[in-house]
Write a structure and sequence with these properties.
homodimer, alpha/beta, Helicase, Ruva Protein, domain 3, 2 domains, four-stranded parallel β-sheet, two-stranded antiparallel sheet, globular
Chain lengths: 203, 203
């Protein structure tokens, strides 16, 4: 018992692994033992890359996404349409958008969403920086791709309010029945939205 | 697309996090973004403790468990019975035994189990070291606490074979109905074992 309570290096390692999201005490213990017994090379690499990342990775000055350079490759890419900006909540959402292969514009990553209970307002999610970018006058369209959650909708609303004074096209990605979705299994809220936001059929 | 495929530091970090057990590409990405955005202190600590652990943590000369010293605290403890050795598969199993508060002897951690398909035989799981410890003549009883899986049972059998020539009490932890278990929900194999290994009632 005494052994397991002491702050040995092993216990410190287990504790340190708990900084990872959704890793509890049991998982952390399993990870620690796995690394020590079966993957010391991987662990050494993780330790090094983690230190390097903390030193070099920062936010892109334009899109706010993570990058090593002051401005990220995507913002510098000449093949992308710099007149369109898609606003997403997180870097993962940006990657999801990229995976669609359907978007060739720029991004702005909020790195969060408006959530008054967590003390996150428009300032904290970088809206002043988005505003500054719009004020430069090069942006013609803003596509809001925040999540369709309560916070995501509130964030979308706040962005609309801030951008209203500018002569911009502001759009929100569509809600509706997912591709491959069957009406029988869709929740009624989604189906109602799909009905309200119906499009004229193209023949 | 090009951005997400390049070996940027972020992609390296996501890749490095995949050395953790049961962490796939999506979880690794989530972990990387979480650490960079919300817990740089924790990440820095993880990087450091991981490097320290790899440098200092080794196997105890006596019990084979992880430790910073040549011989671990548990093996050096004067309050424990050095005539009894409990053989477990992993450090987690040792901790589970310790949590019972019902055992005050020594341990031997196999750091694995016999698994011919994975190329793990008696040599790989340190049985020669256990044998050497028994040959010193101080051990009077060996309690085998490997898992009740096919590999665990094979390992248990191999240990029995190796220790047969010595004048030792060799025991296996009991199989049976778990504490709080209801017969209705127990599998028939366990119930059959509980019946075979029944104990004379004590009045």
């Amino acid at each position: 018992m005494a052994e397991s309570k002491k702050t040995t290096l092993i216990n410190q390692l287990v504790e340190a692994l708990r900084c990872l999201p959704s890793v509890g005490p049991k998982s952390a213990q399993r990870m620690a033992f796995h690394l020590l017994q079966h993957d010391r090379t991987g662990a050494a690499k993780l330790s090094k890359v983690l230190a390097d990342s903390l030193e070099h990775i920062q936010h892109c000055e334009r899109c706010n996404n993570f990058t090593e350079a002051p401005v990220c490759d995507l913002c510098l890419s000449p093949s992308r349409d710099s007149a369109v900006v898609c606003v997403v909540e997180s870097p993962s959402d940006l990657l999801m958008m990229e995976h669609t292969l359907a978007y060739k514009g720029m991004y702005f990553v909020l790195m969060g969403k408006i959530s008054p209970l967590d003390g996150l307002g428009p300032q904290e999610i970088g809206l002043p920086r988005l505003l500054k970018r719009v004020e430069e006058g090069l942006i013609k369209e803003v596509i809001i791709a925040t999540n369709f959650t309560v916070e995501g909708e509130a964030t979308s609303h706040a962005i609309c309010e801030i951008l209203k004074p500018f002569n911009l096209k502001i759009s929100r990605i569509a809600r509706g029945v997912p591709v491959g979705g069957e009406l029988e299994y869709i929740d009624s809220g989604t189906l109602a939205q799909a009905l309200i936001e119906r499009r004229t059929a193209q023949f």
